[in-house]
Design brief:
mainly alpha; 8 helices; elongated
């Protein structure tokens, strides 16, 4: 989908600056023609199914990697100090989080289910967005990492984890905006 033919827009001159035509910002391209910057939005939307699929793979990788967290952080010894009911609630919450991440990963392997503009897909992508943005905020503002294990491998794992949280937050935010028809409509 291109711009309507207009002699000024399609002339091959030495113009190098950005132009505003109506409400569209036009830039010079390598071949001398001016091209709409609205195409950037189209590129993101066109690749969104692939980005959602990759997010699903990332979440499945996260659930596999998270199986090591109880060992690395010594959960068995730490939770042994708790009362039985508190310990059971802790492990139940951990299982619910693991299953939620698994579910998000599996449903994301079918991006068409999450990007069909239906009210259900808007609600689900909205919930997934809130979940991962919330997790990102918790990482920075709630966790006290003074007692965290030390070492390069732990630091690299945390960087990868935070990077994944940022990626998931961004991808599902984009999916939500598409489902709400804020972009791509």
């Amino acid at each position: 989908m291109g711009l309507p033919r207009h002699p000024w827009v399609h002339s091959k001159g030495p113009r190098k600056s950005w132009r505003l035509i109506g409400r569209e910002l036009i830039r010079p391209s390598a071949c001398g023609y001016f091209v709409s910057t609205a195409n950037t939005e189209c590129h993101v939307i066109r690749h969104l199914p692939t980005l959602v699929f990759a997010a699903g793979i990332g979440q499945l990788a996260l659930i596999v990697a998270s199986l090591a967290i109880p060992r690395v952080l010594g959960w068995r010894a730490e939770t042994a100090k708790l009362r039985p009911l508190t310990r059971q609630v802790f492990w139940t919450y951990a299982a619910y989080i693991w299953c939620t991440n698994l579910s998000f990963g599996l449903v994301s392997l079918r991006p068409d289910w999450l990007l069909d503009h239906s009210p259900l897909s808007a609600c689900l992508t909205g919930f997934i967005t809130a979940y991962w943005v919330g997790r990102l905020l918790i990482q920075f503002f709630c966790f006290d990492r003074r007692d965290a294990p030390q070492g390069l491998h732990v630091r690299l794992a945390e960087i990868a984890l935070v990077g994944l949280f940022v990626y998931l937050s961004a991808v599902y935010s984009g999916a939500l905006l598409v489902n709400l028809k804020v972009i791509g409509s």
